Amino acid sequence: xxxxxxxxxxxxxxxxxxxxxxxxxxxxxxxxxxxxxxxxxxxxxxxxxxxxxxxxxxxxxxxxxxxxxxxxxxxxxxxxxxxxxxxxxxxxxxxxxxxxxxxxxxxxxxxxxxxxxxxxxxxxxxxxxxxxxxxxxxxxxxxxxxxxxxxxxxxxxxxxxxxxxxxxxxxxxxxxxxxxxxxxxxxxxxxxxxxxxxxxxxxxxxxxxxxxxxxxxxxxxxxxxxxxxxxxxxxxxxxxxxxxxxxxxxxxxxxxxxxxxxxxxxxxxxxxxxxxxxxxxxxxxxxxxxxxxxxxxxxxxxxxxxxxxxxxxxxxxxxxxxxxxxxxxxxxxxxxxxxxxxxxxxxxxxxxxxxxxxxxx
Length: 361
Fold this sequence. Notes:
The protein is an all-alpha fold. The chain has two domains: 23-80 and 95-112 and 120-173, no CATH class; 184-343. The chain has 15 helices and no strands. The chain has helices spanning 5-23, 25-50, 55-76, 78-104, 109-115, 119-145, 148-170, 172-181, 188-226, 232-241, 248-265, 269-295, 303-317, 319-344, 347-350. Helix 2 (25-50) crosses helix 14 and helix 4 packs antiparallel against helix 6 (119-145). The relative contact order is 0.09.
């Protein structure tokens, strides 16, 4: 099959982009983070500009406010979060041992009555499963923070990201106009339409889901802390952060919270049920209030497609791939739907012959 020259050109550009991103994945992180921050804050900057504030001043105000909010979070939340996280990682083996003892001791009397003679093998399998899961979790955390490269990346994000975000915000309109001038004249309207659909999909998910993650993280952290759960702040924040992965965030937080609650409150099952109720309420808020209102139904990102994109891009590009996975998945989804619409209108699907002038007869 002979590809159209324009198709070959754009496939070549895409291949070079992927290759360049893979080669420079270790240094592109602060620049991609700055671009994401600028994209997130651009509506606020444009609104200030619409009110008569110059673009330069509006960009400075928005970036300064964003930095101030982040500094307040670092000063108020990070110290408590860091101490709880360190205590959680240090005490995790002890909690696992206690959970194993409960599974093999009086906490498993009801299970013995059901399975009878098979109880020893079930206890051994449960013990191995918990131990392997904890070992994997500890190895993952250590691999993320091991070596000086993580500290260098963290420093570069803190220093370079706000600078990159400011310059992109300040030059946003001129950059968009310049890119628009490069579009092929014959297909300019079609490309603009596709770009608008991509923007709606990406903005709907990135901006909307970010608010959902923030609100859910705050709800889980405050509720679990008030309930008296050990490491409630850490579990709540982590659950909120990874809520953008469908089902994974809530399930991870649920398993951690219930496991710690069983060890901490046993044999008081009412407190365990209270922790379960907190997550059930959180799932209700996310599914019926927050996501429909903030994200909406126009994003078009199926959970399976999103998880596949996160795994694929995360495997190829590491943490940079996780940042790029959602917008690229949304963009590819728009392109796939456009290609499908073109196919459904083509003679290849309808079977209608093509007239000499190129129109379907």
